[in-house]
């Protein structure tokens, strides 16, 4: 790339470095309070791997009762199993006291919104793939 022949307007350069999305910072909070560090997991302690897209989580939260818990468990299982699709086992559901029938009902609604692809087999844990929904699906 020849930088001497590169031309761009100042607005175009500013667009390259602009923050996409919405980022709010409460500047008053730093004046009146001291910053406390966020809690971190201890060695050997379980944690939820992120980042979790907020738009995905907001859309999943509309899928019924306990949908937020199931969403968190899906991302926890994906981090723990280090794969996508994940098996949503009864042991994982028990972490947040979610009944398997409730999980099934919510997963069906999530699949309708194309947030997940799910395969159910009788007598086995569902196999759930976390997906990125297309632009046709409203995530707001």
List the SSEs and their pairings.
Layout (H helix, E strand, L loop, with lengths): L9 H7 L10 H6 L21 H8 L5 H15 L4 E2 L2 H5 L5 H13 L3 E4 L7 E4 L10
Antiparallel strand pairs: 1-3, 2-3
Query: Strand tally, please?
Result: 3
Reading side by side through the largest sheet, how are the strands ordered?
1-3-2
Note the quaternary state here: single chain
Instruction: Please state the structural category.
Output: mainly alpha
- Outline type: extended
Q: Assign the CATH class of the domain at 54-130.
A: Mainly Alpha
Biggest β-sheet description: 3 strands, antiparallel
Radius of gyration: 21 Å
Q: Which key terms come to mind for this protein?
A:
140 residues, mainly alpha, Arc Repressor Mutant, subunit A, 3-stranded antiparallel sheet, 7% strand, extended
Can you tell me about this structure?
- This protein has a domain at 54-130: Arc Repressor Mutant, subunit A (Orthogonal Bundle).
- It has six helices and three strands, in the order ααααβααββ.
- The chain has helices spanning 10-16, 27-32, 54-61, 67-81, 90-94, 100-112; strands spanning 86-87, 116-119, 127-130.
- A hairpin with a 7-residue loop joins strand 2 (116-119) and strand 3.
- The longest helix has 15 residues, at 67-81.
Task: Sum this structure up briefly.
With 140 residues, this protein is mainly α. Helix content is 39%, strand content 7%.
